Amino acid sequence: MFLTKKEQEMCDGEYGETIRKSMDILVALGDIYGASKLVDITSAQVSGVSYKTIGDAGLEYLQDLASDGSGKSTINASLNPPGTDLDNWEALGFPRDFAVKQNQIVEAYANLGIVKTCTCTPYLVGNVPRFKDHVSWSESSAVAYVNSVIGARTNREGGPAALAAAIVGKTPLYGFHLDENRKANLVVNVNTDLKGADFGALGYIIGKVVGGGIPYFKLQNTPDNNNLKSLGAALASSGSVALYHIENITPEYELAGEADIEDIMFIGEKEIAETRKNLTTTDKEIDLICLGCPHASLEEIKDVAAVVRGKTIKNKLWICTSVSVKATADRMGYTQIIESAGGNVVCDTCMVVAPIEDMGFEVIGVNSAKAANYVPSMCGLDVVYDDVENLIRFE
Prior knowledge:
The protein has 15 helices and 14 strands. By secondary structure, the chain is of the alpha/beta class. The strands form four sheets. A five-stranded parallel sheet has the order 12-11-10-13-14. A four-stranded parallel sheet has the order 8-7-6-9. The protein has a three-stranded parallel sheet with strand order 3-2-4.
């Protein structure tokens, strides 16, 4: 892999140990995947934030990396969700020992120049690359969104690689950064209108089929951005999809080359209904309804507020979102409506990376196929998968 004079100096430690260690990661990745060179990036999104997933070893690694103060991100770089609501963990019942460690992890990232936005939907809170920008993102649903809906370019990076890219401002030029690797290899004809949790079910079906491939969807109706968010999250969790195209919707669907694809699938109402049913693992009563995987948009919070306005919720309700979106929901009065009904708008974290298994919950209600896929395996809890209005019970 070709390195410029300055890049070689960074590898040699002339800009400090933090940058040298970061360059070691990036150059190794470039060598493994046959990259020709490094390319400048405009944005990064870093995963590996929850104490639940990285533990004490991850915390020590981050603190060591930040210890000499020689390298900090100078680009727009944000964090993935941690395992707690960083400000309100005690009121929500998160374990104290966990919360203390969690805040130390986030502070270590801040010492490396990563903004403490803590969301899996950075594109909703200011980390918005332009079309064809090279970026380095690592949260799987965000990767699917930024590649597919925005048309920026990233591989599905691991947390350490995205952090290294943020510190250096560069990433290896391979994979989805190149035009030839952004073409579809499966056409999916959807022969029914989709709404709500149907988009997650569709993504779950196709992710299992296509794996790390690139699907090209032909839909009957036009999805909004929340639908696209749900679709990409499901594709990325049941498979490892980092890019999808939708005819006449996503910006690169013509690049996908649909006419040249021989593999074609047909999905109808039956397949969607069966998948929605199969994503539910129990018929027991729901302990906690947890929405916002990926993090809820302002529009989604508004919709929940409309459902619960003037009522009292029977089961617990968390709507997970970013601090920025919650601040707007506060100002619009949506948070007050939800809290008056007995729910909570929870910042920073989500049901997948939070220690909900240690908080007395057994059955989680979700409208996210990603959450329905991950909660049983990562938390050991049962899930009920459905639309919001069917999950919430009132007294």
